[in-house]
Specification:
The complex is a heterodimer. Chain A is of the alpha+beta class. Chain A folds into two domains: 44-230, Penicillin-binding protein 2a (Domain 2) (Alpha-Beta Complex); 234-269 and 296-456 and 472-567, Beta-lactamase (3-Layer(aba) Sandwich), CATH 3.40.710. Helices cover 38% and strands 22% of the residues of chain A. In chain A, strands 2, 3, 4, 5, 10, 18 and 19 form a seven-stranded mixed sheet that branches. Chain A has a five-stranded antiparallel sheet with strand order 12-11-23-22-21, sandwiched between helices. In chain A, a hairpin with a 5-residue loop joins strand 8 and strand 9 (213-220). In chain A, helix 14 (310-319) crosses helix 17. The radius of gyration of chain A is 33 Å and the shape is elongated. In chain A, 46% of the residues are buried. Chain B has one domain. Chain B is mainly alpha-helical. In chain B, helix 5 (105-120) runs parallel beside helix 7 (162-178). Chain B has a three-stranded antiparallel sheet, with helices on one face. The chains are: A alpha+beta, B mainly alpha. At the A-B interface, helix 1 and helix 2 of A face helix 7, helix 10, helix 12 and helix 13 of B.
Chain lengths: 571, 367
Amino acid sequence: MPRIRFFNFVVLFVFGVLFLGLANLSIIHGYKYKELSRKNCIRLIPQPGRRGRILDRHGDVIVDNMISYNLMVLPSEFNNPDQVLSRLSRVTGKDNAALKRAYRQNFVSLSIPVVVSENIEVKKAIVLEEMKPELSGFTIEPQPLRHYPEGELGAHVLGYLGEIDRWRLTKLADYGYNTKDIVGFGGAEEQYDYYLRQEDGGLSVEVDRKGRFVRMIGFRPAQGGRDIQLTLDLKIQRIAESKLADRRGAVIVMDPFNGEVMAMVSKPSFNPAVFVEKDIAAVQALFNDPKAPLFNRAVSGAYPAGSLFKLIIASGALENKKINLSTTFTCDGGLTIGRRRFACWNTHGTQNLIGAIARSCNVFFFRTGVLLGPQLIHDYAVKLGLSKPTGIDLSSEASGFIPDPRWDKVYKRKTWYDGDTANFSIGQGEVLVSPAQMACMIAVFANKGTLVWPHLIKDVQGRDISATFKKPSLVPIQKSTIETVRKGLRNVVADPEGTSYLLASLPVEVAGKTGTAQVTGKLPHGWFIGFFPFEKPRYALCVFLEHGGSGYAASVVAKEIIADMCSGGVL
Amino acid sequence: MRDVGVRITVIALILCVLGIISIYSNTHQKEDRYWQLTYQRQILWVIMGLFIFSITSHFNYRNLWDFSYFLYAFVLLLLFLVFVLGVVRLGAQRWLKIAWFNFQPSELVKLVFVIFYARYFSAKSVHDVSLRVGKFGAFRAMLLPLLFLSVPLYLIVEQPDLGSAVMIMMIFVIMLFLGHVKLRYLLIFIGLILAFLPLGWHFLRDYQKDRLIVFLNPNIDPLGAGYTIIQSKIAIGSGGFFGQGWLSGTQSQLYFLPESHTDFIFATFIEEWGLAGGFVLLGLYYLLVRQGILIAAKTYDHFGRLLALGICAMLSLQVFINVAMNLGLAPVVGIPLPLMSYGGSSLFSTLLALGILVNINRSRAVF
């Protein structure tokens, strides 16, 4: 009977093997298969939420959402994707190869719908919806899409949307951000992404093998993002944008008392809708454009200050009693310091501080600057908010640069000569400032001594968030000093010899200062900073023209802006 | 329960009931009324099968000795009929329509071959204790039985029903072994089969090649040929220790697992009852086979012993191939799980075989 015993043994062995195989699947690999089983029959149907809108200070919509239609195919409902995709391609008119590529790229698993074409036209969506009885295996999903009714308006302030990048993801992963999330890039979209961000909801449903609905397991409603209200005034923004036209440069209109930015323009600009449409060629063109349209010149640009710097010299010299209103210097078209002659742009004759500010006399400020000394000039520049970011709620702000003679001496072993001081006094040399810093500086003279925090956010969905605002700081400069400089600023416009006399014809009293910053080899930058009305300022204005020629050109733009603001009923 | 025959009856009944329970769980939720009543039809088959069981268990198995060549001729006729008149289902011509009943003769063929070879390798006389087979030459021990096998085997391969063909071959080899054919003949035969196995690849049909390829790696074609095996493994693996409970296995309830009430009933049973249920089920099958071996060990009639062992081999082979296929350890072939899978042919032939087994136990005492 050995063969029977052998047979018996083999049968026992075989059943043992079967049991071990069973235990291997259900216990050792049980977790994996449970997960697979769950995935098999549970399908998540995403319900995209609506990103918060961006409103202006009066509640008018700047950035909105509109419904777009995505074409999705359901891989579980057909065996041959090519066939379905080629049918869909014929109806939608999209390239068959592109659809196939999208299908391959976006395919995750059988039970998850695959987006093959985003943002299809409404008409085609309707046609497809009507085809459903004969051609199954696809769905049309409405999805809110960013919509820019104002086009390019305020593009730099608003920013654009895009798929989250690696760098942002590492930073934001802890805050619930995931790969493929759409986040803001630049502007308020990035700064206030946390508020604007929607929470996508979804249905989890149990489906059978063919993807047919069996029962609902869970539902989480989509939560729209919060609307944010900016301090921008659409009217002023439109005026500023149209007056700057296609010149390169920046305009900032700000409330000098609380730092609310009412308009901020940087040109050349871009249309954020390009990023929503995923027009790759257009996006590439934006990134490669040598004129850098994505660059926010108003905040991230740093340029030589030119004559605007004279306000710092004036304040510093008055504070330190180096000069007073009776001090006069004579301008004969230039000044020789050491062996070098520093030219003035005109011959101004004898004048005091007020006249020198009005006519922007270089000689007066060469002498005053040398009296004040470079270290104090640096200190007063820093007191007026230069050489550090203003803290505006926009990303990648430039802090500019103010040379520090003491630092130079220690680290660069550079001896500071009076000639350097003279150059320093008219904002040339190493001095770099951003238009935002200049707007804050002029606001100090408008509001008589407070360095405000420029900002764009007004509130979030009607909720006041002013508690999070940075507090304005008092500038340690005496009221009388400020009053004196203000007089000079007023004379820039009011004095027939003032550099901005053309603004005198405006129905509002403007005070301001022009600046022409020399750039080697290129046209100089043009600056105009000012505030109006003079007695009770409501707006601080900064106009910057990159290689715009002169401060005069900038004041022409400023005049047009102010004139339109008057006639437009803003003032 | 001391009586082996009673034990076989009880175990078979338990397995049938477990089968009905699983079939109900798989089909009750389908929309179609015909599907919903699948379990009732299975109950009907079980009742009819038990009737057949009781007849054969009272029919002296010694009579089969005399009938064996008639039975051989009969199944040959059935296979020819399938070849000519067979009903084509799922791409294969395996069924004969008899009135309202689709009968699959290859189920019966397995049993008939067991009877046939038991007859061939044993002496007629009960008293002739010494085996003749050990003295057989190569022709009588190997070639002649192979010749008897060849025609029906060819017809089954042509259906095509590779699973049954492979099983009949395996039964043949086991019968040779248990029939005390010289071991060297057996080894040479197995060696030849293994040597010519690679050639067989060219005779396979495309779907059979696919099944073999996906058996090696199911993920090659997760939606086509590999689908069933992947879903079956998921069903078994998601069962865990105690299963998801009756009527709550999602793989089978939501139709992810095809053929969940026939060839893949093991997977659905495990999904709902877990490893514990699997232990009980495999234990029951082993006990069933064990009873057969016990009967064989007590039977001194060569024909009866060989018949009992052949039936045990047939049962355990079916269970092994089916369960291994469910576990992804064997390629997908159309072998049902005896007594549990839905379908009359398999149930009838299994209960028929068990009836013979019980009868061997009962009639043995006569001699």
